[in-house]
Design a protein that fits this description.
single chain, alpha/beta, Glutaredoxin, five-stranded mixed beta sheet, 7 strands, about 45% helix, elongated
Length: about 280
């Protein structure tokens, strides 16, 4: 009920009246007060899914089988019999997830550069190459080119944990190996070397980047492309190729290739001019 006192309207609790209202209704100046609304008592609706689950045997969320248990021994027995298992969907999801975890655990993962010795070369390089690619970096101390390649090499090792990256001093691996040939990068697969890279010309020279090194390695096969030898973007099919990320990747690869080609041409011209100067002398 309420009374209008200008700009203020007072509203009392429902069913509450004032003495003035009671007098007005007593003399017939106001209509009778409406009956106070009293809602029906709450009654939960029947859960048909729960009833169906109980009728099927008390599983999939049903609790009738738990209520019917007599004592802790029966409850423990139900737990042993997987009576508290979720529905078939969750059980199937759990099974598939376990299979995925087992498959992922079976794939070798490295993630860093492994320093090896001449004695351990067979165990770290030749034997594992029968299952996956193994890279061997031959380097020497106080070599700027070796340091540049080693930095990009370590970054790719973290990026591609399914390929094994190893490192060894060149003269320890091959006694008498010329310093001018280092850094040298060997690519092993199926217990044999499939490619040898000497120097930095294959990756863009002193302006090399990890992307340039990755492109050069992938010319040998699926060296830096995931566990199964596929690009991550290829899993998505044509949709992945049309995505903005794929276009950016292609553009970056084009820029890196152009840099590598420009570096090779520049060094070739420099070598030719140096030979001409030597001939003139």
């Amino acid at each position: 009920m309420g009374e209008d006192f200008g700009h203020v309207v007072y509203r009392g609790p429902e069913g509450e009246t004032t003495e003035w209202d009671d007098l007005q209704r007593q003399y017939g100046n106001k209509p009778p007060a409406p009956e106070k609304f009293v809602p029906d008592a709450f009654t939960p609706a029947e859960d048909r899914g729960l009833r169906a689950a109980v009728e099927r045997g008390g599983r999939a969320g049903g609790t009738a089988h738990i209520d019917a248990a007599r004592g802790m021994d029966q409850l423990h027995a139900m737990e042993d019999e997987d009576a508290f298992a979720d529905d078939t969907f969750l059980e199937e999801y759990r099974r598939k997830r376990l299979e995925e975890m087992k498959t992922a655990a079976a794939i070798p993962r490295f993630g860093s550069v492994v320093d090896i010795t001449r004695d351990s070369f067979m165990a770290h390089v030749t034997d594992p190459s029968s299952e996956h690619y193994v890279l061997v970096l031959l380097h020497r101390p106080q070599c700027r080119e070796c340091e540049l390649l080693a930095a990009a090499y370590a970054e790719l090792a973290r990026k591609h944990p399914h390929t094994k990256f190893t490192s060894i001093p060149g003269k320890e691996c091959i006694p008498g190996y010329p310093d001018r040939n280092m850094p040298t990068l060997l690519v092993y697969k199926d217990r044999d070397p499939v490619r040898t890279f000497m120097g930095l010309d294959h990756y863009g020279g002193t302006r090399m980047t990890p992307e340039g090194l990755e492109l050069a390695l992938n010319e040998c096969g699926n060296v830096c492309r995931g566990a199964k030898g596929d690009d991550d973007d290829e899993d998505g099919g044509d949709d992945a190729r049309d995505s903005e990320g794929w276009r950016r990747k292609e553009y970056a690869e084009m820029v890196v290739r152009r840099m590598i080609e420009d570096g090779r041409e520049h060094r070739q011209r420099h070598a030719e001019s140096k030979e001409e100067d030597d001939d003139d002398e």
